[in-house]
Amino acid sequence: MKIEKLCSTSARLREIMKARGLRQTDIMRLAEPFSRYYGIPLNRANMSMYVSGKSEPAQDKLFLLACALNVSEAWLMGLDVPADRAPQAQKIADSVVCLMQLDQGTQILLADVMKNPQARARLLSYAEALRAKVPQGGEEA
Q: How far separated are the first and last CA of the chain, in Å rounded?
């Protein structure tokens, strides 16, 4: 099966910005929890270069943007594939956002817990339940 590249990351970013009414600063805000969690810096200069097409994001920044925008990395790269992100991948991404709202000490403890597969599964389940309780605005229901 041959997958063809039809456009660029720049074109996909502009497309999603127009469709969702986002600005570059909005994308950076959406990416911020992932940036902190994964230790991948993303700044205004990066965003400007990616949107203008002056440079393509490296794999780590592409991953960060895909998580923030809830799209697949391949689609964001401009490939002719569905934009939908794998449900399990987005579930983990959503859990990261919830976990990043915790204090730093708790985050450090949780990072250690994530090394154990059974504990990780329980933690992600807890984060999903927590996310279900908290509306998008961040206030508890």
A: 47
Domains of the chain and CATH, by start: 9-76 (1.10.260.40), 87-133 (no CATH)
What residues form DSSP beta bridges with 79? 5
| CB distance 78 to 102 below 8 Å | no
How many whole angstroms separate alpha carbon 45 and alpha carbon 53?
12
Tokens of 119: 């504990």
Distance CA 112, CA 119 (A): 10
Q: Is 61 exposed, middle or buried (0-12, 13-18, 19+ CB in 10 A)?
A: buried
13 near 50, Cβ under 8 Å?
yes
What are the pLDDT digits (tens) for 117-139?
787 788 778 877 877 776 654 44
